[in-house]
Amino acid sequence: MPENVSVRNGAITMRATCQWGLSILLSCGALLAGDFPKAEISNRVIRAELMLPDARRGSYRGTRFDWSGIISSLQYAGHEYFGQWYEKHDPLIHDAITGPVEEFLTDEAGLGYKEAAPGESFVRIGIGAVNKPNEKAYRRFETYDIADPGVWTIRKGRDWIEFTHKLATRNGYAYIYRKKLRLARDKPELIIEHSLKNTGRKIIDSLQYNHNFFVIDRETVGPDVAIRFSFPPRARRPLSNGVEIKGEQIAFSHELQKGESFFSELDGFGAEAKDYDFRIENLKTGAGVHVTCDRPLERMYFWCMRTVASAEPYVKLDVEPHREARWTLKYDFYTMAQSSAK
Q: Model pTM?
C-alpha cells in the first residue's frame, strides 16, 4: 500500500492516495476488521470522534459533502451533540453522514460541471474529480463515479487534526484545501479553520455551506428544541408542520412525527460577519451550542425533520489563480439549568 506514516512532535502524519485508502485507525493505532477508519481528539472538557476520508473503506464515500472533518460523536459535560440522524447507513448515500459537514457549490452544481461534456469530469471540492454522465441536469443528491480522488494528507495531535486535500485536473481546476479542527485549551470550544488555495489556471467561484447535523442528546425535534439567530429570520416559504418564528427564534408547536419536515431559505440578516451567529438548544436536557464565523452570510437555510434541525449558513468564495481564501468557524458548547432553559 503506497502510504507513509510518521510521528513528529506528538503528531501523526499520514499520506496516501485514496485509491488505496487511509488504513490506519489513529485513535488506537490499528484498523479493526469491518470498522471504518476513525480518529479521536480531546482536551480536558471535550472528546470528539471523527471519521476519516477513505475511498475504499470510509464511512462516507458519497460525492455531495466534503470528506474531511466528519464528526460522529462530540461529548461535553455528559451531553452528546452529534450522531446518526438517518435510519440506514450506506457509505454511498449522499447524506449518510454526521456532524458539521460541508459542501461546495458552483451554480448549484459541481465546479466545472456546466463546461464538462458527458464522459469528462468536473470537481467536487474535498472529494475529487467525478465523471459527468449523459444527463439533463446536475443531480445533487446522487453519487457520481469518482475519476480522481486526489491525495489526502492527515496530521494529528492530541487535541487537533488537520486534513489536506490536493487535486489537479486536466481542465484547469486545481487546489490545495486544508481543514483543521482543534479544541481550545481547557474550554468547550471547537474551532474549524479552512483554507482553499487555487493552484490551477481557472477561477474557483463557489458557495460553501455547513449543514450542521446537530443531534443533541438524541432527542426528537419539538417544543424542547430552539434555534436562536442574531437577527429576526423571515422564511421565504409558508411555515408548516409545527414550525414557528418568534422574534429571533425558530420554535416548534409540537413534536415532529415521522414524515413531517420543513425547509426554507431565510432572510433578515445583514452584510456583516456578525450576523453569522446562531444557537441551537435542547431545553429538555439543557445543552446548547453557539456557532459563529469570520465571514458574512451569503445565504441561510433552515431544514428540520423528526430527528434533526439544521441551520445551514452559506459563505461566498471567489479565489483567483495563485490566491488563497481562509475562513474560520467557532462552536462554543454550553449547558443551562433545565428549569431556566424552559
A: 0.90
